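#data-curation
PF: Archiving a pair of folding outputs for the training set. Convention for this channel: one message per protein, sequence first, structure tokens after, nothing in between. First:
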Amino acid sequence: MQDKTDTYSFTVDPFDTDCNNRLSWHVLGTRILSAATHHARRRGFDQFEKDHIPYLWVLSRMVVEIDHWPCVHESYSLSTWIRNYYRYFTDRYFLLLDDRGVPIGRILTIWAMINSQTRMPAELNSIFGNSFDQYIHLDDTVDIRRSRIRVNTPMIQTERSTFYSDLDTNGHVNSIRYIEYVLDSLPSQLTMSHPAKRIEMEYCAESYVGNLLNISIEEASPLLYHAEITKPADGKATTVCRSAVTF
């Protein structure tokens, strides 16, 4: 178990919070991505290079469920492990724990490794062989289901430009920024009075600095919102990501 799961501990500092003194989505998202990177690096599969071409891990899907948000000055921890891997993807899970070790949240992330030049996914077995096998933790106590996200009749439509500060180390808009784009597009009286309990992100294409993104949001049911972010490409709208937010 020790070789399969890593746990990282944190404290909610005052500048880690949102306006309600809860851990912000930006900080939680950063902790999730960092924990995944450190877990992979400690086992030697955080990066790969072939014929002088770097291969990069990219996030394909993420589902975050929060029962209780850590507040300012509270301690919390993230445990992470790989449950499965397939031809092109890995399923990485996280458990969010409070300062007593009680689970207060669950996260599913799905990752692909892509060629940095072609942006196409690589077959994991051809890169790593069976080296993933020794790190697979078949823990089924964290059960997270994905849903189908569709925006048919948007009630909110807005635009947002991308800037330098939105970019990550790979040169495209950081995965967590899209969560903030969606939350910022919802009515502030909703987001300030209701902490999000579940956010699902489906990443479809990358966006870059200078892109003008269109954000369309539909209320699928009470306190459940579906969102789609698109960008213009070759004269048509290309879906960058879809999101489902439950309050």
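PF: Second:
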Amino acid sequence: MRNLASIFRIIALVAIAWGGIELLFETEPGQLAVLAYPKTLIFLGVIALVSIAIEVSVAALRFTLFKSLSEEKQEKFLALENKQVNQLKAKFENLPKLLTRSRPIEEEGEIELDHDYDGIRELDNKLPPWWIYSFYASIIFAAIYLVRFHVFDDYTQVEEYKAEVAQAEIDIARYKETAKDLVTLETVTLMADPSDLEAGKQIYTNNCVACHKADAGGGIGPNLTDEHWILGGGIKNVYRTLLEGGRPGKGMVSWKNDFKPSELQQVASYVLSLQGTVPAEPKEPEGEIWVEEIE
């Protein structure tokens, strides 16, 4: 019994620590913090080890103190402990009776009513306490609800719905501000942060220089530094080209299966940051001069 209690305490401490991690660390909806931040597993492991060490130390100290007692006192201690265990067992065994107020089969004759239908007897059993208290609670709840919403005219269901929709729209907007991978052709914007441009440069260097050269002067692919664009300039058009690929049969493939939307936004922004630079061997202009329309 004591070992079982120690196990429960260890599990409880680890569960509390886990709950604290989930509350303190922000994650995407539906994602566990311990998975998003693997280092927190080390913290949980430390908590588990410390809990085990404490339980082992307490058990060792208890055993040492027990051995220091005389035989007579050891017997009294064991008798007291067994008494406590038996009392606890008795409470657990009596729990079903407390919850249901049922009578033993041997005593059913005392609560039998004078109703007999084809051998089916009716007993005057008392309703279970949990059922009675739940019924009373429902009556109290109904009374409060009646007074609040029908006497004092608190908010209606329509007002509650509109408030929840408004809050949901706020939450969605806040989520979209930080969820970079929700970028679409309609929402993509030009990025100017140096860290984003550096990330875009790394993607460009690893995947685009073979066709466009390191300085974007153009090789197999067109020059990306001049004003001429085959499929249109600007962040939306460049992003669409990366997302869907270029003209059929011209070699420019779709990168949507290789990179996240946020990464495509970064490399598109980096490409546009090269506008006006002077490459070593610029390729002849291709396409038409693109001028961004002012909305």
